[in-house]
């Protein structure tokens, strides 16, 4: 324990000893008495511990300034940060700020605010997710740091420091904007800042809410304020500052506020009554003379563009997109060593811009981004194909490689031409293979993402990935138990693609313990790993042999399947229904389900799912039912007589989404062949619903246009595309509803559709029947990815697919009515 005199000289001595000296910081962190003294020095003389009252005011202020500087320096050490949290340093800074007055010296006010900034940013870096690149999160104090950071985002804390954003001095407003820019890492924190209003404004709003006659109009006027208007408005005003540091901080803060935040981004992207959009004010700064301002503006514009168009419901500013892409290209082409950090950030900006958007991926590809990124990676990667890297590579180079490769993976996600350029023209597979074994976790993650994207192409999967050994290398990473969870999840997403039915590696994976590892991941409790493991099982079962189905389901566990249906989230339930749908793609599979799950249990879950609040769950449950109905007469009777099942199916027919109507009408059509089931169908009131469907037109089509009913046994051309949570996609009609293959990170491939012979629905392989993995790319920064799938089609193709779906619904409904009204005479 060290006892130091509380004076400016002694505190300066401590400050000089720790600045840039990690070992000194670590040693000082163990001196609890000194830490207590430093924190106490932040306080006003009349509160808690303070210097002697006889000290001159200037000396008191100098002591507080030096104490704030020392604490700010110590915050960069994890050991010291732990001790600071033990003694409530965040609270001490907030108390100190609350007592500051405009008449206090700017040096004192600035030191206190910058001390809070340093402490907050140090906590954010440990709490995560990382802002630039993927970093391992194995800190022992991470949970405590999260609690401390959450404290600073509570409304009472925000009331203390956020108003300082309007301080006329850049020395005060800049660190506040930097706190917003760099400490806001989670959706919860983003929501807290978006909805924050100054205390007096909240009181006014509360009074308004109690006036019944004014409530509606006033609340509507104030709604933008509740959606981040106050903070966004003041940050936007700071962009015009002449202080370049404040300007950069304001742009970065707006970027952080807008990221994945449609309520704020949309306001910034659209014009108001008198002024142009804030976005048009930001775009010119991408061409600023200051490179850091360019980066901040490009990042800000990117998050506004993507945040304001989450579902392509708002038009994209094409000129702004071109400006950002041109900036990325010029920055990437700059080869000076000191530009590594800027090149890294430019690559990440491109990644954020194009992720999950096929149009923007195409725009980046057309403007030469892919060639520049690949050339840069090859420039910093050894020529030999090595699987053992040295430990001497600078972290900045590893980050540059990671950022380039995730951008390449994002760009390659939707288009086979782009994937062929990566594999055949740029010869990039050896680089990817080598990076799978890099020491930097982010590089391994990025390499796995590249494998996931490339494995969406049938030709690449069956040739390059197999012949190069890439498929077995990704499998070894997937099986590695000591690997970072983000890398494991990324590798799993690629494995999901590689186990599709036409893959040569499927039987090899099975022989080498695929199911053992998937079962292990299902038991780990990680929601993302659980979801993707189920997705892999779903893909694995599609078009598999009866013996494979039996073996896979035995290892998965029938009891676990029922548990997922009963207690799982919507995504888990959707994938579980998909798994059973693939099992039930044959009569043997149907028997397997009814043998291992009590009929009343599986039919109960289907009955509930038919009216689920999740459209995806309803869709997959309907597909499963359409397959089960192809079972024997006894199984059909059980389905038809199950309480409320037909009533809920009628609700699905009448009120469900159009894509569920096709398998639902097929269910009725097949059941109508069964004499006992016909009575149950009639009693459920389904006949009137079918008649209504015969007149229904989902695409402006009249019944008269259905001149050539689609034969149930005929093949349907096109590509089956999976639409899953977080993704967008269209599916031409398939036939075999039971065969469903999805993967959490890629896309869909064309597969032959299997059909049952004879009349009825057949075993369906329509939407989600086989999809490959595609992750939302912001998952890179610690967010667990949510599987999604998107396959671009032309507008004409989409319209044609919708028309085919309409025709089939009408055709099924008419055929079912004929059987119900004429029975055996119809045959």
From TrEMBL:
InterPro entries named in the record: ARM-like, ARM-type_fold, Armadillo, ARMC8/Vid28
One annotated Gene Ontology cellular component of this protein: cytoplasm
Keyword set, alphabetical order: Cytoplasm, Nucleus, Repeat
Gly residues composition bias: residue spans: 726-736
Region annotated Disordered, chain positions: 719-787
Subcellular location: Cytoplasm; Nucleus
Listed Low complexity bias regions: 738-749
Primary location group: cytoplasm
One biological process term in Gene Ontology: proteasome-mediated ubiquitin-dependent protein catabolic process
Ranges annotated as spanning the membrane: none
Domain of life: Eukaryota
Keyword Cytoplasm: yes
UniProt-recorded name of the protein: ARM repeat-containing protein
């Amino acid at each position: 324990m060290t006892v130091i005199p509380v004076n400016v000289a002694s505190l300066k001595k401590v400050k000089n000893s720790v600045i840039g000296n990690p070992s000194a910081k670590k040693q000082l962190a163990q001196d609890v008495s000194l830490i207590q003294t430093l924190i106490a020095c932040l306080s006003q003389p009349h509160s808690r511990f303070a210097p002697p009252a006889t000290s001159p005011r200037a000396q008191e202020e100098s002591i507080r300034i030096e104490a704030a500087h020392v604490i700010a320096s110590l915050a960069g050490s994890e050991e010291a940060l732990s001790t600071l949290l033990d003694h409530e340093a965040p609270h001490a800074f907030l108390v100190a700020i609350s007592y500051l007055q405009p008449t206090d010296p700017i040096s004192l006010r600035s030191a206190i605010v910058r001390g809070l900034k340093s402490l907050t940013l140090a906590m954010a870096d440990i709490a995560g997710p990382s802002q630039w690149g993927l970093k391992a999160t194995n800190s022992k104090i991470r949970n405590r740091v999260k609690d401390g950071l959450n404290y600073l985002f509570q409304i009472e804390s925000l009331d203390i420091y956020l108003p300082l954003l309007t301080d006329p001095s850049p020395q005060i407003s800049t660190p506040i904007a930097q706190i917003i820019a760099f400490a806001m890492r989670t959706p919860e924190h983003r929501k807290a800042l978006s909805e924050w209003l100054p205390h007096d404004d909240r009181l006014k709003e509360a009074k308004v809410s109690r006036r019944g006659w004014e409530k509606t109009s006033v609340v509507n006027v104030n709604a933008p304020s509740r959606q981040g208007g106050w903070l966004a408005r003041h940050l936007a005003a700071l962009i015009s500052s002449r202080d370049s540091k404040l300007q950069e901080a304001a742009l970065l803060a707006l970027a952080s506020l807008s990221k994945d935040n449609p309520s704020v981004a949309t306001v910034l992207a659209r014009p108001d009554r008198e002024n142009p959009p804030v976005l048009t004010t930001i775009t010119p700064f991408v061409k600023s003379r200051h490179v850091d301002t360019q980066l901040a503006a490009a990042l800000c514009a990117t998050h506004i563009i993507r945040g304001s168009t989450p579902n392509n419901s708002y038009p994209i500013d094409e000129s702004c997109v071109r400006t950002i892409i041109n900036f990325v290209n010029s920055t990437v082409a700059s080869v000076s060593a000191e530009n590594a950090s800027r090149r890294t950030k430019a690559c990440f900006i491109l990644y954020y811009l194009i992720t999950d958007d096929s149009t923007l991926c195409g725009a980046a590809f057309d403007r030469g981004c892919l060639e520049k990124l690949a050339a840069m990676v090859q420039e910093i990667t050894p020529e030999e194909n090595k699987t053992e890297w040295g430990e001497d590579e600078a972290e900045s180079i590893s980050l540059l490689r990671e950022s380039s490769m995730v951008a390449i993976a994002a760009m390659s996600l939707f288009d086979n031409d782009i994937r062929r350029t990566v594999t055949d023209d740029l010869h990039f597979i050896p680089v990817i293979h080598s990076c799978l074994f890099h020491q930097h976790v982010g590089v391994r993650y990025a390499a796995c993402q590249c494998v996931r994207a490339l494995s969406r192409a049938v030709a690449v999967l069956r040739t390059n990935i197999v012949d190069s050994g890439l498929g077995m290398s990704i499998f070894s990473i997937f099986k590695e138990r000591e690997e970072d969870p983000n890398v494991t999840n990324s590798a799993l997403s690629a494995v999901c693609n590689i186990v599709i039915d036409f893959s040569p590696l499927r039987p090899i994976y099975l022989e080498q313990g695929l199911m053992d590892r998937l079962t292990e991941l299902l038991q780990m409790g990680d929601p993302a790993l659980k979801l993707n493991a189920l997705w892999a099982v779903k893909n694995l079962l599609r078009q598999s042999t009866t013996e494979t189905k039996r073996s896979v389901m035995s290892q998965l566990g029938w009891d676990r399947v029922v548990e997922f249906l009963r207690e799982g989230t919507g995504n888990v339930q959707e994938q579980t229904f998909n798994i059973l749908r693939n099992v039930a793609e044959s009569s043997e599979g149907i028997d397997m389900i009814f043998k291992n799950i009590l009929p009343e249990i599986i039919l109960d879950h289907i009955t509930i799912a038919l009216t689920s609040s999740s459209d995806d769950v309803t869709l997959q449950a309907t597909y499963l039912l359409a397959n089960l109905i192809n079972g024997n007469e006894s199984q059909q009777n059980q389905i038809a007589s199950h309480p409320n099942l037909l009533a809920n199916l009628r609700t699905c027919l009448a009120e469900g989404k159009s894509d569920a109507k096709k398998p639902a009408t097929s269910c009725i059509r097949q059941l109508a062949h069964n004499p006992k089931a016909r009575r149950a169908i009639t009693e459920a009131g389904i006949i009137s619903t079918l008649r209504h469907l015969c007149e229904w037109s989902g695409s402006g089509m009249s019944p008269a246009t259905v001149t050539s009913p689609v034969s149930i046994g005929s093949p349907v051309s096109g590509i089956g595309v999976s639409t899953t949570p977080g993704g967008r996609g269209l599916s031409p009609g398939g036939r075999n509803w039971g065969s469903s293959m999805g993967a959490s990170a890629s896309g869909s491939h064309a597969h032959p559709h299997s059909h049952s012979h004879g009349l009825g629905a057949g075993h369906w392989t329509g939407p989600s029947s086989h999809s490959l993995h595609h992750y939302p790319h912001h998952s890179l920064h610690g967010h667990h990815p949510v599987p999604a799938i998107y396959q671009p089609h032309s507008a004409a193709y989409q319209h044609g697919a919708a028309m085919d779906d309409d025709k089939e619904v009408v055709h099924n409904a008419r055929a079912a009515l004929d059987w119900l009204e004429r029975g055996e005479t119809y045959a």
